[in-house]
Amino acid sequence: MFYGTEQKKLDKKGRLSFPKELLKELGNRPIILKRGQHLRLYPGASKEQFRPSQIRELRVDGFNRILIPRDIIKSLSFPGRNVILTGEGDHLAIRRKVL
């Protein structure tokens, strides 16, 4: 289960770093789903509940980062790449930080 809120910043390549403990819960291949003006990040095991056209499977690199595809970043227009990561029970929400 995911709870809490944390401010993060995407790097220039669109990668978002996570604490190791949080990545253990997400697994090696989390699923990202765009919903309105934010993203939802689900553990890989839950991908069957979505239509394949709605999701993207992501990979975790060796530095505990997930690369968010550029087209998704552009469509959400994260200002300054500042985001807020919020635990919402069975998933994490990634929202743009309003400056």
Written account of the structure:
This protein has 99 residues and is an alpha+beta fold. The protein has a single domain (7-84), classed as Chemotaxis protein chec. The protein contains 2 helices and 8 strands. The protein has helices at residues 20-26, 70-76; strands at 5-9, 15-17, 31-35, 38-42, 55-57, 65-67, 82-87, 92-96. A 6-stranded antiparallel β-sheet has the order 1-7-8-4-3-5, with no helix packed on it. It is globular, with a radius of gyration of 12 Å. The termini are far apart.
Task: Based on the model shown, name its key terms.
99 residues; alpha+beta; Chemotaxis protein chec; six-stranded antiparallel beta sheet; 2 helices; globular
Give a short overview:
The chain is an alpha+beta fold and 99 residues long.
State mean pLDDT (0 to 100 scale).
Answer: 84
Q: What shape does the CA trace take?
A: globular
Order of helices and strands: EEHEEEEHEE
CATH superfamily: Transcriptional regulator MraZ domain
- Major beta-sheet overview: 6 strands, antiparallel
Number of helices: 2
How is the quaternary structure best described? single chain
The CATH topology comes to Chemotaxis protein chec
Strand content: 35-45%
Number of domains: 1
CATH class (first level) name: Alpha Beta
Unreliable residue stretches: none
* Strand order in space, largest sheet: 1-7-8-4-3-5
